[in-house]
Amino acid sequence: MTAVLVAHSGRHGGTRQIAEVIAEELRETGLTVDLRDAADVATVDGYAAVVVGSALYYHRWRPDAVRLLEHHARDLAERPVWLFHSGPCGPGAALHQVSLPANVALLAARIDAERTATFGGRLDPATVRGLIPRLMASGHRAGDFRDWDRIKAWARDVGRRVRIGVPH
Ligand SMILES: Cc1cc2nc3c(=O)[nH]c(=O)nc-3n(C[C@H](O)[C@H](O)[C@H](O)COP(=O)(O)O)c2cc1C
């Protein structure tokens, strides 16, 4: 069975839920999927492909997701890798494409990752701590801007490409 690793890192569970939906869609295309917190990934050996997703905080990826890319760059470069990040909130969030932070863009180039997907995020003022974060999470930005149909379609496309074997 072709095995795929889906690794995620966030703070408030929104990115993990995206990773769960991606994993489910990949399973439905017939792939075997391991879903892991990026902090818990010890190796990428044995996986035909890897998906890594991070929440965006202050224009940066979460440290655990960056560490995963750094520590396993050589092994990741040997297999197809898809990246996604979740962040934009508020009106138009679904259409907003965010560039990779510079440090992650360098790693993505080293790994020769596929094009990064940006998915909208979720901001719940009740779960956010600190004055500035709470201000950021208030008003028109508060809410759930994750487009599940888009996320599922992206995952199915990844699954299809893993099964046919994207040239790498
Ligand atoms: C303090 C703070 C900073 C944020 N910074 C960004 C950012 O720079 N870019 C962005 O697109 N989203 C940003 N967001 C939105 C989060 O990425 C979004 O809420 C995401 O869904 C959080 O994922 P998580 O629930 O997995 O932590 C920020 C949110 C907070 C609370």
Automatic annotation (TrEMBL):
<dbReference type="InterPro" id="IPR026816">
    <property type="entry name" value="Flavodoxin_dom"/>
</dbReference>
<dbReference type="InterPro" id="IPR008254">
    <property type="entry name" value="Flavodoxin/NO_synth"/>
</dbReference>
<dbReference type="Pfam" id="PF12724">
    <property type="entry name" value="Flavodoxin_5"/>
</dbReference>
<dbReference type="InterPro" id="IPR052200">
    <property type="entry name" value="Protoporphyrinogen_IX_DH"/>
</dbReference>
<dbReference type="InterPro" id="IPR029039">
    <property type="entry name" value="Flavoprotein-like_sf"/>
</dbReference>
<feature type="domain" description="Flavodoxin-like">
    <location>
        <begin position="4"/>
        <end position="159"/>
    </location>
</feature>
<protein>
    <submittedName>
        <fullName>Flavodoxin domain-containing protein</fullName>
    </submittedName>
</protein>
